[in-house]
Amino acid sequence: MIKGFLLTILVGFTQFIAAQNNPIELNEVTSEGKITIEAKNSSDQAIDLTLTFTLQGMESSNGKVVTKTVPAHGTTTMSVLSRKGGPASYSYKSSYRMSQIMDDAAAMPEEPLDDVKNYKSQDVTLDIPEKGIVVFSKRGCGRCTYTTKYFDEKGVPYKELNISDDKKTSDFFWSTLRKNGFANGSVQTPVIVVDGKVNYKIRDLKGFLEETAKSHKK
Fold this sequence. Notes:
Helix content: 10-25%
CATH superfamily of the largest domain: Glutaredoxin
Strand content: 35-45%
Order of helices and strands: EEEEEEEEEEHEHEEH
CATH architecture of the largest domain: 3-Layer(aba) Sandwich
Shape: elongated
CATH topology of the largest domain: Glutaredoxin
Number of domains: 2
């Protein structure tokens, strides 16, 4: 109970959305008359979570219907509930689906390539074709796996170069980036070259792949 008004809690302070093995856990933290609702994802894949609120005498910081992506093994604040005045109560329904992309780009930091970034950049014999697709991938990269799987399923021809395989490939990768204006020491993978154009900061990966597939099917 929050001092000054009656708070009827219609959901538990910690709840799992459905089955016991459900990957989403909802936690409610009360502080200074406000309730922060956080979602914790215990799975290896990003999850799109929707909460639909029923409110009396309260307001939600993000509206009555809130949809956010909860990153794999991460926690996201869904909403903060605060009192408007008078008797107050709240409840909410929840639903979720697995995100179509392994890692949400907006929630994913750029990946430091510690195993290769200290190598001296040097030109190597590998080249980038004027036409076609080259995917620079990295071991353990969920976005890279999503990319190659998407192209395979859509029948899009491409060449994959894994920069974790050897020094020659990683040197070529960095040389290609720097020739195209990239000056940082870390980058988010995959880097995708389409008809000679190097794309190294792809926020909307799904949209980018869809557009690329339209013009590069067999």
